[in-house]
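Re: the multi-chain job from yesterday

Posting the exact lines I submitted so nobody has to dig through the queue logs.
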Amino acid sequence: MSSTQSSISRYSARRKDGVSRGIRESIPERFAPYVYIAPFFVIFAIFGLLPLLFTFYVALFDWNPIGDHEFVGFANFSRLLGDSRFWNALVNTLGIFLISTIPQLIIALFLAHLLNHARLRAANFFRMAMLVPYITSVAATTIVFAQIFDKNYGLLNWLLSLVGIPDINWLATNYGSWVVVSVMVIWRWFGYNTLLYLAALQAIPRDMYEAASVDGATGWKQFQHITIPSLRPVIIFTVVTSTIGGLQVFTEPLLVSPETGLTCGAARQCQTLALFLYEQGFGQYAFGYGSAIGVVLFVIVVVIALINFFLSTRMKGGQ
Amino acid sequence: MSDLRPKTDTVSLTVPAAKRRGSGRVGRVRWYVYLLLVLAVVACVFPLYFMFIVATTDTATATSLPPRLIPGGNFFALAAHVFEIVPFLRSIVNSLIVALSLAVGQALFCSLAGYAFAKLRFPGRNVLFTFVVLTMTVPAQLSVIPQYMIISALEWVDTLQALIVPGLASAFGIFWMRQHISSSVSDELLQAAKIDGANSWVIFWRIVFPVVRPAAFVLSLLGFVSAWNDFLWPFIVLKSPDMFTVQIAIKALQSQRNVDLGLAMSGAFLATIPLIVAFIFVGRRMVAGIMDGAFKG
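And the result, structure tokens for all chains:
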């Protein structure tokens, strides 16, 4: 049957070639592209778009998991704005985002620069090693780092004690627990970003470095005047992905210590927005209030996307 | 030893072609470059090594100071204990089912969609593709509550399809495959096949997919890794220990951390080791795939 079909389409192709390109394909062929892209759109509609829209709806209700709900208008939002736990989670999220993203991208840039040598030995070994943290699960990573940062038996406090620094109870304070969570985030992602930067670096024509060498520009000058400018697009990309990732930090603060649970400590030292959302939604069964947190997260994402759009168009305009 | 060679610029001219092909900075690689890179490698690998040490010792040794840096002999006893406390074998099977389904599903659906966006002409193509790209910037996490409500309405709570179906086609995968298909499949070839009467489905399987199979394979690897390591969503939808994936099993073990630290570490180690072993074989292709991605220049 398919041979009949194809011979028809071949026939019609010959007959109408150059006359009306648009209708020379048989009807199933015209719909084929839509069939190929359909799986994504169907899945996204059900598990992505619908929940997103539904978040806005549920946020207007007092809604429990059994399905009982009562319309409360914007009460969830006004309660959220007056909720010190929300502001705490927001500050924690931004704090962790800042002290994880900035060092992470600087380390990645630096390592990519080191790896970007035409004559580096064992280059593949180094590149593969950079990906090891990425393939290790957050759950496993977190247990290890919790042990390294343990206040009594931790490796880090022991090392610090060798130089006379008394034991630090890392998880007891906001800043301390941000450091612990950020170290885990940095560890997991710096290698992946290194490879992205390295790929962009290798796309820079070699003659540029050769010419710079001839002109007497050394390592740092080359880095400043060749490397950084060529990396602008990929730097923007990694900043955006790290930002989106930073807003979603969840597993690290949840598992960093089994005693602290959903609040990441008695004083909510490292409770992030994602963890606060989970606590309200699935710990307290307040689906409406939890969804309101989701809406706020969405607004933050949109604001960041707009800032990014603004910055990247401005950079393009400047070049 | 290397001093026997003259240290002039002619050295770089006599380097074999294979070594010169690599791009990047020219000139000698200084010793401190290696030193810093080795430090970075140690930073990447040490936590795993530390995990292994704790997973091989009893709690008393694991918490003694100075910390032990050589593995002990307790690993098999602890590993056996892991399998007693949680149905860990079952968790590994569950994780394998989910990760393999997603690896295969993403390779298939994303390749097909990537092909449509890269090579087929149809009304709405650009708008739809822009939409796909935009969906990447919205974190799925912010709507986990309604997602759970939908899974609940489908009566999929505590099932593996709740983990598989929502991830079968990813925007990232479509973007990735489209990029590879547009750059590595020639339009002339497709045109010739079309004139020969092949329809788009035949063209996809006979011409497009064989060409981009390496890219689809790397996409599968990335899909496998992220499914294997996923935590939040399985944590929300899985309820009974028999349905747990390995990551959730680790969480269950971890709640016993105060009882036995080595136990949680053994679980973590057992959950990590399959990926590490696989990585030794496919790591090079994964590195090449990530670097080959869309973000050059």
